[in-house]
Amino acid sequence: DLARDDMAEAVEDAFRYGKIVLATTTYNSDIFPFMRTFVDALTERLYQKRTIGIIENGTWFPTAAKVIKAMFEKSKDITFTDTTVTIKSAMNDENIKQLEALADELMK
Fold first, then answer.
1. Which residues does the chain have with pLDDT short of 70?
2. pTM flag (> 0.90)
3. pLDDT of residue 31
4. Which residue in 5, 9, 58, 102 could disulfide with 26, CB within 3.0 to 4.6 Å?
């Protein structure tokens, strides 16, 4: 929870793993401000050679995945999972299937 966690520790932790999942809401056609700060901190510190999974949430028009991918455009060797989980306000059966697919993909 980036709103409650120490941001420096969260960034440090991200560098410990080869794969991470970023989960955030769409917020004013952007991403939640704490997630923006986190991704900015990663890209400023040359976060690279990692795999990123994305879980986005948005009621009308979720754009979080698109925003996150654009933020990492200049990062080297960033691979995004084929599966992006898109939740529209509340979880449903399709989201559960997407989460399972994302987990399977990350376990490879």
1. none
2. yes
3. 96
4. 58
Residue whose C-alpha is closest to residue 55's, from 83, 84, 33: 84
Residue closest to 18 by CA, chosen among 64, 44, 52, 61: 52
Taking the C-alpha atoms of residue 108 and residue 92, their distance in angstroms, rounded to an integer, is 25
Question: What is the rounded distance in angstroms from the CA atom of residue 82 to the CA atom of residue 85?
Answer: 10
Instruction: Give the H/E segment covering residue 24.
Output: strand 19-27
CA–CA separation, 66 and 84 (whole Å): 10
- The whole-number pLDDT of residue 14 equals 97
Beta bridge partners of 14: none
> What pLDDT does 59 receive?
87
The 50-57 sheet, strands edge to edge: 30-31, 19-27, 50-57, 78-87
Q: Label the pairing between strands 19-27 and 30-31.
A: antiparallel
